[in-house]
C-alpha cells in the first residue's frame, strides 16, 4: 500500500468515525429531548386529571342544585369521580414511565406511539379543532355557533313608487350574505327563546333598466342614460353589519348521564330582529362597445351612498333553511331629493 493510499484510508476512516459519532450524538440528544418531554408530561397529566375532576364535581353540583339527584347520591358520584381520576393518573403515569424506558433502551427511530389521545373534529365555524377524549363534556352548553349564508333578490323601495315601478331589474338584481352567528338560550330550563347575534358581510347588487347607469354630480346621484349601448350595468354596495335576532321555536332535549343538550334539528323556527353596521365599499361595473372595441369599466367611488347601515330583518323556516327578508331603514343614497331603501328577499341557511 503506497503512501497516498494509506492517507486516503485514514481520511475515510476519520470521516466514518465522525459520522457515526455525530449520529450517536444526535440519537442521544433526540432521545434525551423526548424523555424530558415525557417527564414534563407526567406533571401535566396530574394537573389535567385534577381539572377534569373539578369539572365533574361542578357538574354533579349543578345536578344537585336542579334537584335531579339527592345529597347522598351527589356524594357517592363525587367519590366515584375522585376514584376514577386517581386511577387515571396512576395508569397514565405508568404508560409514560414505560415509554421512557422504551426510549432509554432503543434508538431514536423507535416508535413509542405518542403520549396522549386526541380526537380531530371539523369544527362548526372555526375549522379544525382538537379535543382531548379524556376531558368530560360540559353539563350544559347554552351558546352555540352557526355559519350563516343567504342569497336572493334585491331591489329598492322608492318614495311614491311601487316595486313594480322600480328602475332596477327585479330578476337579476340580487344579494349575498355571509357571516357567523352565535345562539344563546335565554332561559335556564327551556330553549323556546334564543338570542342570535353575530356579524355578516352583505353584497347588495342593483342592475338598472333601459341602458341606464349611475352618475354622481356633487352631492346628487341620479340614473342617467349611457351615451353608448350598454352590454352590462351593475351597481354593488358592500356592507359589514351586526345582526341581532330573537329566535323562537321548539327544540328537543337530549339527556345523557353527565350532560344534556337542546337540539333544533329539523324544527320550526322564526326569527325577528335588526342589524346595524357600515358601508365597506361601492362599485359600478359597465360593459359596452366603443369604436369596435369592448370596454369594461370598474368605477369605485362613494356615489353618495349612506355610510351607516341599519334595518330590520326576519326569517321563518325549518331546520337549517329559512325564508329571509331584510329592509334598510337608512336611505341608499344620502341627502337626495327622493329616498330609496334597499330591500331583499331570499333563502337563508344556518349551518351548525
User: Which H/E pattern describes the elements?
Assistant: HHEEEEEEEEEEEEEEE
Terminal CA distance: 79 Å
CATH class of the largest domain: Mainly Beta
| Percent strand | 35-45%
CATH architecture label of the largest domain:
Beta Barrel
Q: Please tell me what the overall shape is.
A: elongated
Tally the helices: what do you get? 2
Largest beta-sheet details: 8 strands, antiparallel, barrel
Topology-level CATH name of the largest domain: Porin
Q: What Rg, in angstroms, do the CA atoms define?
A: 33 Å
What share of the residues lie within helices? 25-40%
Counted up, domains total: 2
Low-confidence stretches: 4-9, 13-28, 114-130
Helix/strand/pairing category: alpha+beta
Question: What is the residue-mean pLDDT, rounded to a whole number?
Answer: 85
- Tell me how many strands there are: 15
How are strands sequenced across the largest beta sheet?
A: 3-4-5-8-11-13-14-15
Quick description:
28% of the residues lie in helices and 43% in strands. The protein is α+β, with helices and mostly antiparallel strands.
Notable characteristics:
two-stranded antiparallel ribbon; 2 helices; 352 residues; elongated; 15 strands; alpha+beta; Porin; 8-stranded antiparallel barrel; single chain
Describe this structure in words.
With 352 residues, the chain is α+β, with helices and mostly antiparallel strands. It has 2 domains: 108 residues; 209 residues, Porin (Beta Barrel). It has an 8-stranded antiparallel β-barrel with strand order 3-4-5-8-11-13-14-15. It has a two-stranded antiparallel sheet with strand order 1-2. Strands 6-7 form a two-stranded antiparallel ribbon. Helix 1 packs antiparallel against helix 2. The radius of gyration is 33 Å and the shape is elongated. 19% of the residues are buried.
Amino acid at each position: 500500500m503506497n503512501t497516498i493510499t494509506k492517507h486516503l484510508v485514514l481520511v475515510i476512516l476519520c470521516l466514518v468515525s465522525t459520522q457515526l459519532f455525530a449520529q450517536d450524538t444526535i440519537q442521544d440528544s433526540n432521545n434525551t429531548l423526548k424523555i424530558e418531554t415525557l417527564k414534563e408530561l407526567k406533571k401535566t397529566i396530574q394537573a389535567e386529571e385534577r381539572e377534569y375532576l373539578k369539572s365533574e364535581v361542578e357538574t354533579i353540583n349543578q345536578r344537585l342544585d336542579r334537584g335531579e339527584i339527592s345529597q347522598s347520591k351527589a356524594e357517592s358520584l363525587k367519590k366515584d369521580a375522585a376514584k376514577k381520576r386517581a386511577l387515571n393518573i396512576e395508569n397514565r403515569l405508568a404508560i409514560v414511565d414505560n415509554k421512557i424506558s422504551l426510549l432509554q433502551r432503543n434508538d431514536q427511530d423507535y416508535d413509542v406511539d405518542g403520549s396522549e389521545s386526541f380526537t380531530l373534529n371539523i369544527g362548526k365555524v372555526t375549522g379544525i379543532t382538537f379535543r382531548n377524549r379524556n376531558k368530560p363534556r360540559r353539563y350544559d352548553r347554552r351558546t352555540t355557533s352557526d355559519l350563516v349564508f343567504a342569497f336572493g333578490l334585491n331591489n329598492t323601495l322608492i318614495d311614491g313608487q311601487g316595486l313594480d315601478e322600480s328602475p332596477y331589474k327585479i330578476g337579476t338584481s340580487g344579494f349575498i350574505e355571509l357571516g357567523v352567528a352565535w345562539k344563546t338560550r335565554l332561559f335556564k330550563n327551556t330553549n323556546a327563546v334564543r338570542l342570535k347575534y353575530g356579524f355578516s358581510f352583505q353584497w347588495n347588487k342593483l342592475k338598472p333598466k333601459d341602458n341606464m347607469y349611475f352618475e354622481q354630480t356633487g352631492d346628487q346621484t341620479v340614473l342617467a342614460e349611457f351615451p353608448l349601448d350598454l352590454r352590462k350595468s351593475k351597481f354593488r354596495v358592500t356592507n359589514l353589519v351586526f345582526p341581532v335576532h330573537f329566535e323562537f321555536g321548539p327544540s328537543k332535549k337530549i339527556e345523557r348521564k353527565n350532560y344534556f343538550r337542546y337540539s333544533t334539528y329539523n324544527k320550526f323556527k322564526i326569527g325577528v330582529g335588526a342589524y346595524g353596521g357600515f358601508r365597506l365599499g361601492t362599485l359600478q361595473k359597465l360593459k359596452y362597445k366603443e369604436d369596435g372595441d369592448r370596454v369594461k369599466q370598474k368605477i369605485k367611488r362613494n356615489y353618495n351612498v349612506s355610510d351607516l347601515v341599519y334595518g330590520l330583518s326576519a326569517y321563518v323556516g325549518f331546520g337549517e333553511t329559512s325564508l329571509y327578508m331584510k329592509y334598510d331603514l337608512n336611505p341608499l343614497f344620502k341627502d337626495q331629493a327622493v329616498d330609496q331603501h334597499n330591500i331583499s328577499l331570499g333563502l337563508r341557511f344556518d349551518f351548525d
